[in-house]
Amino acid sequence: MVTRSRSVLFQRTTVVPAFALVALVLTWGRDVPGWVVAVAAALLAGAVLAAVHHAEVVAHRVGEPYGSLVLAISVTVIEVALIVTLTADGGDKSASLARDTVFAAVMITCNGIFGLSLLVGALRGGVARFNPEGTGAALATVATLAGLSLVLPTFTTSSPGPKFSPGQLVFAAIASALLYALFVATQTVRHREEFLPVTSEGHVIEEEEHEHPPTARDAWTSLGLLGLALVAVVGLAKVVSPTIESGVEKAGLPHAVVGVVIALLVLLPESIAAVRAALRDRVQTSLNLALGSAMASIGLTIPAVAVASIWLDGPLLLGLGSTHMVLLALTVVVGILTVVPGRATPLQGGVHLSLLAAYIVLAINP
């Protein structure tokens, strides 16, 4: 036991996040040359893989749906800190950063991770099977949160522009937090069985098929290392973000592309973990990760930026434009049609991935 615990300190999944944190400390708030950015990007990728490993160890110990919930909340909490930090540093130019990053997270999770998981699961077993009750409840919550926080601000008249008045922002923040808390209680307590993986015959899998679950000590160690790895991931994403912004400006691309790139970097751990789960024929776990991450991104970000807006200068633009509202509506409608049968072929996965591709193309060339 002692030998095993000591060996963990020298594993790649421990050493890489440690180096990434050192790099984060040395580069934070500084202008760094290109080669340092390249090293930071490499360490960021290593920290992503380490985060996925430790998340899987924790998930193995606590079981589903708690494992996917741990990863989704961990990533989103640090993502929120990143958004607030960048918004505070960017002034008026970052007025729409929260909206752009949250919407990018919704599209990446609900179409990218969701579609890729279905595609991988269907190609592996012919048909990807999941629980429509739990997945449908998650999709409905995501749709409601997105509508309240990202669509309504475009149509309100109390404040000019696509933003809430202070009272409306308080309501959106409280509603988002309460809805997310209610969903977590539903997922983990009252209706936990609706979020567990199912067999090809549609039977719920209560216990994962693992030889030796990790000990409590190993699980706590991995939980701590998961937090460190995620801090490194999001912190280094901020370090490389000036290079990203510079590249976006030099390429003549819209500033919203910065939010897309940041969301892609931050959601890498969930993406890899979801694909691995789909390869093990645990598509429900993959969908829990996808929709849970989308929900947490809205349900935690909106209250956070609402509180932060008290001391942040400049407007807080949350309302989507018409093009993005169409993409969100298509995502919700296609998601409903995908979820209702409780099974999906590669076609459904391809449809969701095509919506993500459309979003990325229109973000680059609006």
Automatic annotation (TrEMBL):
Alphabetically sorted, this entry's keywords are:
Membrane, Transmembrane, Transmembrane helix
Q: InterPro entries of this UniProt entry?
A: Alkaline_pH_Ca-Antiporter (IPR052946), NaCa_Exmemb (IPR004837)
Name one matching Pfam family.
Na_Ca_ex
- Mark the transmembrane ranges: 9-29, 35-54, 66-87, 102-123, 135-155, 167-185, 219-240, 252-275, 287-311, 317-340, 347-364
Q: Where in the cell is it found?
A: Membrane
Q: How does it sit in the membrane?
A: Multi-pass membrane protein
Q: Where is the Sodium/calcium exchanger membrane region domain?
A: 35-188, 222-364
Protein name as it appears in the record: Ionic transporter y4hA
Q: Which organism is it from?
A: Streptodolium elevatio
